[in-house]
Amino acid sequence: MHENDRVTPQTRGLLFAGTTSDAGKSLVTAAACRLFARNGVKVAPFKSQNMSNNSMVCSDGSEIGRAQWLQAVAAGAEPETAMNPVLLKPGSDRRSHIVLLGKPAGTLEAGEFATGRAHLAKAAFEAYRDLASRYDVVLSEGAGSPAEVNLRAGDYVNMGLAREMHLPVVVVGDIDRGGVLAAMFGTLGMLEPADQRHLKGWIVNKFRGDVELLRPGLRTLEERTDRPVLGVIPWLADLWLDSEDALAIAGWQHRVDPTLRVAAVRFPRISNATDLDALAAEPGVAVAFTTSAAELADADLVVLPGSRATLSDLAWLRERGLDAAIARRVVEGKPVLGICGGNQMLAATIHDPLGIEAGSPTSVAGLGLLPTRVDFGADKILGRPTGSWRGEHVAAYEIHHGVTTLDGDALRAWEASMFLDGFTMGAVWGTTWHGAFESDGFRRAFLAEVASRTGSPWTPQPDAPGYADRREDMLDRLADALDEAVGFQPLIDLVDAGVQP
């Protein structure tokens, strides 16, 4: 190929698509970011549109998907809005809240998904070109499956992005689910010819066992698709890196012989479930998401995590009698923690005069476990706060509409004290801060307090690695696995070749 025929620097990149959601493309993209950075490439991650209630606040106060934040960390790049220009946060089965270039930008109805996103596509393409002008390579992550041809007309995340930017596409498939070879073959078959020419190869993910047993199937796939299998990545244990959606929540919840048990309520609209990752990484601690009243009763600590629909999830909690199980814990002096939306549920009253969450003005009774009131307003609060608790430094981030304050009518004779930016009373704690448990000293001090209240023998292990160190170690393990299975050179060769118009 003549040098002048190569892909232009303005579009230099690679797109990792998946046969399904949760096929592992987020982690493969993170691994590739770390691998490219190791090899001296200035690389940025990108995802045109992310549909997730797990998000992160950048240093400038903007909001992006948690997966792209992690990929930026892997790349050694500063996370920014251009890396995830469109973030859709599902509020119901038929409506998502739009975060455009880091800020709230209305809603998207289910009926608009196929054809009502032209303005979002324009913003996404501009963001990609902006990144490409400042980085050597942009590594993009697709969404869902590129074979969702019912959505192809309005697609700007998978083949729509590939066509616009002349990107080669590598499809990742999760063999642990079964049927991966058929899913790959079917993915190619569902694409129109102009899209097919962008698909350059396959990566099999999460393989267990002897790869020689798989090779006949791989050869057949290569023969029938005329595309190479670039590599087979083995199953990697103990990876829970910043999962993008609820499909991945259960990946780390089992631990042998734990001495401290944490039960988190699995809300239908759970948000920022990654708050629990650092607890699950702590030696001797087991974390499980649950909808069982019995599990809530048995745990040392119950966590009400964040929610994208506080009022709806509060009603769901009551419908299942879980509110009563939580109230019994408080009477018995057993620890309960609410984070963001979960903290709002602990309040005496919740007021939504503008219908921010409910769609129409409303006021409802909260669980009444803290003497607080929540008032929803039009402005979304985004920030990267810091503080301390019992002398331990805490760094966190916040993403919420409601403002929580002490309620004089509910306070009566009770005494409540400050906890981070929230309040605590007895064995109940509430905070709007996400990510606080990633601060090692605070996490261990808080868990030690829980253990002392429940009689658990759990104590911190002073020689255990910190959470940030564990994240870096896991990113390196991912990059090592991708390097061994695929290698840097085949990937950079795809980037250099591009797909000519």
Task: Report on the architecture of this protein.
By secondary structure, this protein is of the alpha/beta class. It has two domains: about 5-235, P-loop containing nucleotide triphosphate hydrolases (Rossmann fold), CATH 3.40.50.300; about 250-455, Class I glutamine amidotransferase (GATase) domain (Rossmann fold). Helices cover about 30% and strands about 25% of the residues. It contains 16 helices and 29 strands. The strands form eight sheets. A seven-stranded mixed β-sheet has the order 15-13-16-18-29-28-27. It is globular. The two termini are about 15 Å apart. Residues about 1-5 and about 250-255 have low confidence and may be disordered.
Q: Helical element count? A: 16
What would you call the shape? globular
The end-to-end span amounts to 14 Å
Instruction: Give the strand line-up of the largest sheet.
Output: 15-13-16-18-29-28-27
Q: What is the count of distinct domains? A: 2
Total DSSP E strands = 29
Family: Belongs to the CobB/CobQ family. CobQ subfamily.
Domain CobQ/CobB/MinD/ParA nucleotide binding: 15-239
Protein name: Cobyric acid synthase
Keywords: Cobalamin biosynthesis, Glutamine amidotransferase
Summarize the SSE layout with pairings:
Layout: E1 13-18, H1 25-38, E2 43-46, E3 49-51, E4 55-57, E5 63-65, H2 66-75, E6 86-90, E7 95-100, E8 103-109, H3 118-134, E9 137-141, H4 159-165, E10 169-174, H5 180-190, H6 193-196, E11 199-207, H7 215-225, E12 229-234, E13 260-265, E14 270-271, H8 277-281, E15 285-290, H9 293-298, E16 301-304, E17 306-307, H10 310-319, H11 322-331, E18 336-339, H12 341-345, E19 349-352, E20 362-365, E21 372-375, E22 381-383, E23 386-389, E24 392-395, E25 398-400, E26 403-406, H13 408-411, E27 417-419, E28 422-425, E29 428-431, H14 440-454, H15 467-485, H16 488-497
Parallel strand pairs: 1-9, 1-10, 2-9, 3-6, 10-11, 11-12, 13-15, 13-16, 16-18, 18-29, 19-21
Antiparallel strand pairs: 4-5, 6-7, 7-8, 14-17, 19-20, 21-26, 22-25, 23-24, 27-28, 28-29
